[in-house]
């Protein structure tokens, strides 16, 4: 069996703010931007990884989702504790400096973790945790 990661999903609260963050701050390319009944699904990803993507989606839509469920989900997203993604950079400190200068919300400056990784963390406009690890 051979499996690869094709796409991962992160909720957005403001599609335009999320688009600006992932495209303009992180430098991802926009692969798809689909609207339906006032909602948007935006697919982004690194230009050099055309088979891997993040789909930014409206939270709490779908069959069986009650208003109470949706409200609870939005509260968790607002706290920044619902979803996240781990990215990798060959120069973590330079990447951190670039994102910080672009106005990204810093959660953690670059640090050597006790489990062997060096990483930093930001939040996207919806509050999703974006961790970036040093590689290479």
UniProtKB/TrEMBL annotation:
Domain VOC: 4-135
Source taxonomy: Bacteria, Bacillati, Actinomycetota, Actinomycetes, Micrococcales
Pfam families the UniProt entry points to: Glyoxalase (PF00903)
Name of the protein this chain belongs to: VOC family protein
PROSITE patterns cross-referenced by the UniProt entry: VOC
């Amino acid at each position: 069996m051979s499996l690869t990661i094709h796409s991962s999903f992160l909720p957005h609260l403001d599609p335009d703010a999320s688009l600006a963050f992932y495209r303009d701050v992180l430098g991802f390319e926009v692969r798809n931007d689909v609207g339906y009944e006032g909602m948007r699904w935006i697919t982004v990803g690194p230009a050099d990884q055309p088979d891997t993507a993040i789909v930014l989606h409206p939270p709490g839509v779908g069959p069986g989702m009650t208003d109470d469920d949706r409200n609870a989900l939005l509260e968790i997203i607002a706290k920044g504790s619902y979803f996240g993604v781990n990215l990798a950079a060959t120069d973590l400190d330079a990447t951190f400096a670039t994102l910080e200068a672009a106005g990204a919300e810093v959660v953690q400056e670059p640090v050597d973790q006790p489990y062997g990784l060096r990483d930093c963390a930001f939040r996207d406009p919806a509050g999703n945790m974006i961790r970036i690890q040093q590689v290479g």
